[in-house]
Design brief:
The chain is of the alpha+beta class. The protein is 23% helix and 40% strand. It has three helices and eleven strands, in the order H-E-E-E-E-E-E-H-E-E-E-E-H-E. Strand 5 and strand 6 form a beta hairpin. The longest helix has 23 residues. The two termini are 29 Å apart.
């Protein structure tokens, strides 16, 4: 148990370090340090499938609502303006950041630019998969990479960046390589559950789905 706890704490440290590196990466169109999320409220809700935790992420007058994946606990980091969803059982974290629209018009997000940034930020990483992810009607590139965190273990990272009218919503999933497939399900639950309220419009809530 002590060994598993230490490994999980190491993974949390890696999340902070990797997010910092991503913010500092020069010359990449996916670099955005101007996170605009301001608060997170998590509350319990009941429905046909039992108790779930819902989150409301506020950024200015706008907001995202989502269902916290089963087994995860949500917190808001005031220093980084990011949501952290952590599961001690899965030894995995999902980080959510809402970022404003980049100042440069050509600083768009593409699969190639996300790949280049990921390989630059995570030294020695190998690309496992590239795909497209969606939140509602918005779509954006995603990538899974794997790197050696220690001599005896590998860490998997999934990066998702989805443009929306107010900016970009970015997700970072971090887990040991042998647990990333279980964490994939949690990420899919999260993406399916997100609803938005842009330009001051109230956000709806995801109705209860069988797989949530």
């Amino acid at each position: 148990m002590r060994k598993q706890t230490l490994q999980f704490l190491f993974l949390l440290f890696c999340v902070d370090a990797c997010l910092t590196h991503a913010a500092e990466a020069p010359g990449t169109s996916t670099t955005r340090t101007n996170a605009v999320a301001t608060s997170l409220r998590v509350f319990a809700d009941m429905g046909p499938v039992g108790k779930i935790d819902r989150g409301i992420l506020q950024f200015g007058k706008d907001q995202f609502t989502f269902v916290v994946p089963q087994g995860f606990r949500g917190t808001f980091d005031n220093s980084t303006r990011q949501v952290r969803l952590a599961s001690s059982e899965l030894q995995a974290t999902i980080t959510i950041a809402v970022q404003s629209v980049p100042e440069k018009a050509d600083a768009g997000i593409s699969a190639d630019s996300l790949r280049a940034a990921a390989l630059s930020n995570y030294k020695g990483a190998q690309v496992v998969d590239q795909f497209e992810a969606s939140v509602g009607d918005w779509r954006g590139p995603a990538i899974e990479i794997e790197y050696s965190s220690t001599a005896a273990s590998k860490t998997s990272v999934r990066l998702v960046q989805i443009p929306f009218p107010g900016g970009v919503i970015a997700f970072t999933v971090l887990a040991s390589a042998d647990r990333i497939r279980t964490s994939d399900h949690a990420l899919n639950q999260l993406l399916l559950s997100i609803r938005s309220g842009i330009n001051g419009a109230p956000a709806a809530f995801q109705r209860f789905l069988p797989d949530l």
